[in-house]
Amino acid sequence: MMKNPYSKDFPQLNNGSVYLDTAATSLKPNSVIEAVNHYNRDLSSNIHRGMYEAAVETTELYESTRETVAKFLHAKTDEIIYTRGTTSSLNLVAYAYGLENLKAGDEIIVSELEHHSSFLPWQFVAKKTGAILKFVELNEEGRITVEAFKKVLSTKTKVVALTYVSNVMGYITPMKEIISLSHQYNAICVVDAAQAVQHIEIDVTALDCDFLAFSGHKMLGPTGIGILYGKQKLLNIMEPFEYGGDMNDDVNKDISEWKTGPQKFEAGTMPIASVIGLQKAIEYIENIGLSTISEYIDKLQRYALAQLKQIEGVKIYNPTSETGIITFNIETVPSHDAISFLAEKNIAIRAGQHCAKLICDWLGIYSCLRASIYIYNSYTDVDIFIEGIKEAVAYFKKLGF
Ligand code: PMP
């Protein structure tokens, strides 16, 4: 069987584990690890402040990463804001745009597929402003469809906050059509791209989304860095979300002024090492190409699903998943018991509600298992995983589960 050409770039794989938990966080390639180390080892200094060599190089790397992200998303550099992660990005939009622009009776469209970080900020905004949450009805597979979306869209809709790829079902939302329809009603669209950006090409200009959020750590980058893309005209009318150093232009006892552009939203010392690492993560993905990545993942996923379907006692919830996410249960076995068994065999998958309780409710389950595949996984990983599941089924059956 063909050897995986990428696994050698991921040193954590040397620990012998079968890592199928990328949807929680990805492994990091050597180039990302080295970039983070380079900053910590050789460059430690703050940005936009010092004139000494390390500070200048650090500022250059920090700002050139912004250009890399902008090109990656087909955005303008000034539309790229650094945050702590998807959660921070989505909260920033809810606080700085939602609280200011929504009023009682306005409607916010969400779905049961949302991760808590794409749902709870809007539940909070609804509570504070009197706006109403509307849920797109999912189809029988658990997907958001354009037809169902049209049924909840109205002149009252002001915000559409949807996941581009569900972290539980792995489906791709038909976002372009949804955004185009939303704009006909003057609603803005906030896209949670945390599980999309590492799988599908995102062109925010063609997509025409108003805001889009993702995390570095799910796309081969370091933790602690996220991106918020926002249309310039919206960012310009928004107040800062956090106040402090580096985001102000002039500070006075009575009134102060803010910087324009992304810096208005980047108060205090930012996660500089992680920003620098993110640039290398994007370069790594671009060097392989997202179409090559998704083709490979698709093959591996189909290989895994074909075998998993044959195992009696396994229930798969998303057999038509499109992004390497396989969600299932060993029927009658609590998911945390199942992952403990697999962990003993060095197989890393996740159990629980995946910060997406509403979709677990929709599926009628308390929790589930999730295996997620990425570019560094191999056919051997899948074989070991399938063998582990077979052994788990037999083991728990023997115990009377
Ligand atoms: N949205 C989705 C779809 C996710 O999968 C996640 C992470 N599980 C998040 C948002 C939140 O990302 P973070 O924890 O990096 O802020």
Outline the structure in words:
There is one protein chain. The protein is α/β, with parallel strands linked by helices. The chain folds into 2 domains: 7-20 and 290-398, Aspartate Aminotransferase, domain 1; 31-287, Aspartate Aminotransferase, domain 2 (3-Layer(aba) Sandwich). The chain has 13 helices and 15 strands. It has helices at 30-43, 53-73, 86-101, 116-129, 146-152, 175-184, 204-207, 232-237, 272-288, 290-308, 335-344, 357-363, 379-398, and strands at residues 18-19, 80-83, 107-111, 132-136, 157-163, 188-192, 211-215, 226-230, 248-250, 257-258, 314-316, 325-330, 347-348, 350-352, 368-372. A 7-stranded mixed sheet has the order 2-8-7-6-5-3-4, with helices on both faces. A 4-stranded antiparallel sheet has the order 11-12-15-14, with helices on one face. Strands 1-13 form a two-stranded parallel ribbon. Helix 1 (30-43) packs antiparallel against helix 9 (272-288) and helix 2 crosses helix 9 (272-288). The longest helix has 21 residues, at 53-73. The two termini are 36 Å apart. The mean pLDDT is 97. Bound molecules: 4'-deoxy-4'-aminopyridoxal-5'-phosphate. 4'-deoxy-4'-aminopyridoxal-5'-phosphate binds at residues 85-87, 115, 117-118, 163, 167, 192, 194-195, 215, 355.
